[in-house]
Structures are given as C-alpha cells and as structure tokens.
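It would be a great kindness if you could assist me with a short task in structural biology. The matter concerns a single protein, recorded as an amino acid sequence and a row of backbone structure tokens. The record follows directly beneath this note:
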Amino acid sequence: MHKNSMPACGSGFLARTLTRFAQLFENELYCERYSSNNKLLQSLDPRVKVVVILAFMVFANFVTSLAILEAVGIVAFFYACASGLPKADYLRRTWMYLPVIMFIFSLPGGMSFFVKGEPMIWLVPAGALGSNDGVYMTAAGMAMAARIALRTGDSLSFAFLLLMTTKWYGITGALRRMHLPEVFVSVLNMAYRYIFLIAEVGTSMMQARHIRTVGRIKTSSDRKYMSNMAGQLFIRIHYMSEEIYGAMVLRGYDGSVTTADVMKTDAADWLFLLLNAVIIMILTLGGYIF
C-alpha cells in the first residue's frame, strides 16, 4: 500500500498527529490519481454515474435476499476492476472494516431473546444456568446481521467507486446540473475545501510545535497544548474564511456554482445507463426466486 508522504519524526502525540494530517492529503492525491484514468467509470458523464450509483445504493437497501445483496457487491467489484482500481485496496476500504463491525454489533439482536427461530449457534445450552430454553443465535437473526453487513458493504462499495473515479468538482457539477439547490451544492463544496484548509493550518501549527520541542513531551502538556491549539485553529480559520469570502465576492461570486467542464452525454453513457437498468431489473426478478 502507500507510504506516508510525511514520515513520523518521533513516536509522540505530535508525530502521530502530523502523520494523520499527511495521510489526509495523501488520500486526496490518491483519489485524484485514479479519477484521471481513462477507464470504464472515469470516461462516463458524472451525471450518469451519480444516477446509476444512487440507484444501486437505494436498491441494495430495499433488497432482503442475501444472494441478491451478494450479487450487487459483485457488480460493484466488477466496476472497480474495470475502472483500474487496485483490488486489495478496494476490498480493504469497503469490506474489511465497517461491514464487519456492523455484523458484529448486529449479532446481539439475533439472539433468541429478540428473534425466535431455528437455533443455529448455542451460547447457553438448554437447562444450563437455570435457563429452560437456553440462549442461542437463531438462523433468522444471523441472516438479519448478514443482511445489515451486506447492505453496508454494498453502499460503501458504490460510494467508493464514485469518489475514486470522479473528481470532486465533477460530482458537485453533476449534482448542480441535476437541479439540486445551489445552496446545498455550495455547502458541499465549501465543506470539502475547508476540511483541507483546516488540515493544512493544523499541520503548520503542529510542525511549529514539533520543531521547537526538545526531548519528550508529557501527556498532560500535550492535552493542554491541544486544547489551546483547537481554539486558536478555529479562530484563525474563521478569520481566513471571512477573507476568502470577501475575495470571492470581489471577484463576482453571487452564490451560484459554476464549472469550466462541459458535461456531455454520449451514446456510451446512455448504453451504460440502459445496461445497469437491465441489471437492476434482473436482480429484482431474482429477488423473487432466491
């Protein structure tokens, strides 16, 4: 996988924080690198991608069949491979963490206390510990936990595909051309930019502190510095935001969202849209079978 673009200059709190900031910027460059490829999803109109990906995400959250949910995940994996995304990284970012956590956290809801059904995994045998029926995981409860995990993984997979194959301004430009409110799109753009502005200013403050540090810093001193730095950071960001907004107004900003890219829907986009409509129809019919 990737190396940190900023190596940790020690093992303390400041070094770890600087590493996290570096990883944030590295992740942005990582997305930009793959969104510039001329592969399957990268070559499509962002509006078509937004529509298709939202359709699959909505579809996955209404499907109850485990087999169909797995098929949706396979479709996402195929699009990731066809778009040149690294398979190992795709699986790690989409399926290795949050779906597993959701499955584990959903397991208690699948016990016989809450869901009646055929015993699948016995936790307390019948008659033990004063329990007549025992405590067990039901097949219906396990299926419910698996369904939640698969829905989470499918949604993450398609969201990851959109973010990795489309530049941010392409996503917001597509949302604007789909007639979403300009205020909504502007807030998205500003939030995205300010995340990196805050990270950049915070990195500078952390580096200044780290360079002036001799020896190891106590944990109590770290906590005190972080509380002071948080206040200074937001005061500085607020002041910078006022200056940025003033500069934007002087340059003619009136609240509308504009982009230099011209979005055109060609035959390949319509074909992709039709193909995915057929896939969703087939999966819908398959839901009545499996």
Summary: The mean pLDDT is 80.
